[in-house]
Amino acid sequence: MSVHVVATNRKARHEYEIVDTIEAGLVLTGTEVKSLRSGGCSLAESYATVRDGIATLKGMHIAPYKQGALHNVDPVRDRRLLLHQHEIRRLSTKLQERGFTLVPLRLYFARGYAKLELGVGRGRNTYDKRRKLRDDDEKRRSDEAMKRFNRGQSV
Q1: Which residues does the chain have with pLDDT short of 70?
Q2: At the topology level of CATH, where does 3-124 sit?
Q3: What is the pTM of this model?
Q4: SS (H, E, C) the chain
Q5: pLDDT at 1 (0 to 100)
């Protein structure tokens, strides 16, 4: 299966501890799809909500399509997410717990359809962020040392 990633929210995994992920479709207009295919999208500052059984993405910026003229819509309008009812119910119960939020992680095309990977996450404190950065750095250093050690053994 071919997946073409349009945008990622790299800051989300730093700001939030992602507990669960889910894939959702998006309701888009034709010019928005064309703009996405050319890479005009930003997931920064965007989030998703569930109200009255409807999942909505807020704050995602899709640049206006250059040849769209009068068919272009508001770049930061709310967009409906396509999810099954049981997925929406599961997400809404999870979001009612204290501290959980629904964050978009990446936007991509799969099988010709625009898909959004959402993460159910809990916000990290500043000291948690520093600890994660330190742990990631230690892991990277140890992996590099093991790689050098193994390369020296095989030669």
Answers
A1: 1, 153-155
A2: Small Protein B; Chain: A; (2.40.280)
A3: 0.77
A4: CCEEEEEECHHHHHHEEEEEEEEEEECCCHHHHHHHHCCCEECCCCEEEEECCEEEEECCEECCCCCCHHHCCCCCCCEEEECCHHHHHHHHHHHHCCCEEEEEEEEEEECCEEEEEEEEEEECCHHHHHHHHHHHHHHHHHHHHHHHHHHHHHC
A5: 63
